[in-house]
């Protein structure tokens, strides 16, 4: 699931209005905003879990975590071990991640 599908213009306006934009364009002027609103309406109708499943991010199948790490280089892995000794799977960025990593109640001591 690491391959992101890239769109290619096909001669039609992508808000599905039936119009024909300039060659190489996806939209008639202003219609990208319209498509965005439509997409928001569709997205609003499904739960987060539905959206994840639709993109193949199902735990045990496609990793949301790995995809996030691959898409946004500001995200990093915790790198510590949880209290039961397994690798901590938490990812995050910036101050939130530093706070998490510093939390000794959730992790084994650093040098064990
Ligand atoms: Zn259109
Ligand atoms: Zn952690």
Order of helices and strands: HHHEEH
Mean pLDDT: 92
Low-confidence stretches: none
How many separate helices?
A: 4
Main beta-sheet annotation: 2 strands, antiparallel
User: How many DSSP E strands?
Assistant: 2
Distance between the termini: 35 Å
Spatial ordering of strands, largest sheet: 1-2
Radius of gyration: 21 Å
Task: Provide the structure class.
Answer: mainly alpha
Strand fraction: under 5%
List cofactors, ions and other ligands: zinc ion
- Bin the helical content: 25-40%
Overall shape: it is elongated
Question: What keywords describe this structure?
Answer:
112 residues; mainly alpha; two-stranded antiparallel sheet; 4 helices; binds zinc ion
Could you please describe the fold and organization of this structure?
The protein has 112 residues and is mainly alpha-helical. The protein has a domain at 63-112. It is 33% helix and 4% strand. It has helices at 31-44, 48-54, 64-71, 94-101; strands at residues 76-77, 91-92. It has a two-stranded antiparallel ribbon with strand order 1-2. The chain is elongated and about 65 Å long. It starts with 30 loop residues before the first helix and ends in an 11-residue tail after the last helix. The mean pLDDT is 92. One zinc ion (ZN) binds at residues 78, 80, 88, 90, 100-101, 106-107.
